[in-house]
Design a protein that fits this description.
Blueprint (H helix, E strand, L loop, with lengths): L2 H26 L3 E6 L6 H13 L8 E6 L6 H9 L7 E6 L2 H6 L13 E5 L5 E6 L7 H5 L5 E4 L6 H13 L3 E4 L5 H9 L5 E5 H7 L1 H6 L2 E6 L21 H16 L2 E5 L5 H16 L1 H9 L7 E2 H10 L5 H11 L4
Parallel strand pairs: 1-2, 1-3, 6-7
Antiparallel strand pairs: 3-10, 4-10, 4-11, 5-8, 5-9
Helix pairs in contact: 2-12, 6-10, 10-14
């Protein structure tokens, strides 16, 4: 291509980029963007969303106002359904719900009214990591002792769909660990208290939560981290065995990835409704990632001891679509493990 044509092409590219920016600025200027959180105010999802809302607007052309609304119910399923079926696809409504609801679509669970393949994913602010913490009093202070336990080790859980229930189910099915899951607890704080009281041995849930809420037990040695359930060992858990190191078959590793790892990575998903114009999707994806790198946002999160480990919209989309690439027998196996009796 001649120098003249190169110059002309560059000019056109600059013109088009500038035009798109001006159009976006014109659209968003004076508008209000809603982040609809699928849980009640004051919880972890809500805390992240309100922090993001304080900084997101300055990274969107036209600097719109950002507000947070709460639509609690059915483990954020109501919010996901509403985003898919009722929210106007104009780039002004963002949904924040549990990404692992995709599994419920795969399992054809009652109440699912969306197709996750059609959401326009914006990203996640943090990829959740998982660890299993057991009390010293239980006698299970290492993975070797857990494997050798003569009786099933009691772990606390909430209900199918919660990570503190799903993780033990997968570990029992794939690794053959002796586990008796005791469900019905109304949160990990109750599981922790039950473990301290000797009713159960411990549980498996988000490491970010364990290291804060059970810090005294970890520091005193009364609580031990026996296993982590992550794509690879975390830097601050370098000496704790990881689940993938003990899965002996590819089928088992695939169940771990689909049942735990991929779900944990996109647990705190943010998305736009299907049909949102592509240029606005790209604008909002860019603004989301820019917010994750915003020094003021980072400082606020550090002050609140909240982790930032984001995924882009494209990365979340890739993980979401991976669920639909599972073979029917893999889906059936996963459902059998995670939703017993359903």
């Amino acid at each position: 291509m001649s120098r003249k044509l190169l110059f002309a092409a560059a000019f056109v590219a600059i013109f088009l980029t500038g035009g798109a920016s001006a159009s976006a600025q014109q659209f968003y200027k004076g508008k209000t963007v809603r982040i609809v959180v699928g849980f009640a105010a004051g919880g972890g999802f809500d805390t992240y969303a309100r922090a993001i809302a304080r900084h997101l607007g300055k990274h969107i052309p036209g600097n719109p106002s950002i507000v947070v609304d709460n639509m609690a119910g059915a483990g954020s399923l109501l919010a996901a359904n509403d985003l898919y079926n009722r929210a106007k696809p104009d780039g002004l409504t963002i949904g924040n719900f549990i990404g692992s609801l995709i599994q419920q679509q795969l399992f054809e669970s009652k109440g699912v009214e969306f197709d996750a393949r059609k959401f326009e994913w914006l990203g996640v602010p943090v990829q959740d990591s998982t660890a299993c913490a057991l009390t010293k009093a239980s006698g299970i202070t290492s993975l070797e002792k857990w494997f050798a336990a003569k009786e099933p080790v009691k772990l606390g859980g909430e209900a199918p769909g919660a990570n503190d229930s799903d993780v033990p189910r997968v570990l029992k099915a794939v690794l053959g660990l002796p586990i008796q899951l005791v469900e019905g607890y109304k949160g990990t704080s109750q599981i922790r208290l039950a473990a301290d009281a000797g009713e159960i041995a411990g549980g498996c849930w988000t490491w970010e939560s364990i290291k804060v809420t059970w810090r005294k037990g970890l520091e005193s040695g009364d609580v031990n981290l026996v296993l982590q359930v992550n794509p690879q060992r975390l830097p601050d858990l370098a000496n704790v065995p990881n689940v993938l190191e003990h899965a002996k078959t590819e089928e088992g590793r695939e169940i771990i990835r689909a049942g735990i790892l991929n779900s944990a990575a996109i647990l705190r998903a943010y998305a736009l409704p299907p049909g949102t114009p592509k240029d606005r999707v790209e604008i909002m994806r860019g603004a989301f990632l820019a917010t994750m790198k915003d020094p003021e946002f980072v400082a606020e999160m550090n002050k609140a001891s909240l982790s930032i480990n984001p995924l882009s919209g494209a990365e979340v989309e890739k993980i979401a679509l991976s669920f639909f690439k599972l073979q029917p027998k893999e889906v059936a196996k996963l459902k059998e493990i995670l939703m017993p009796g359903k």
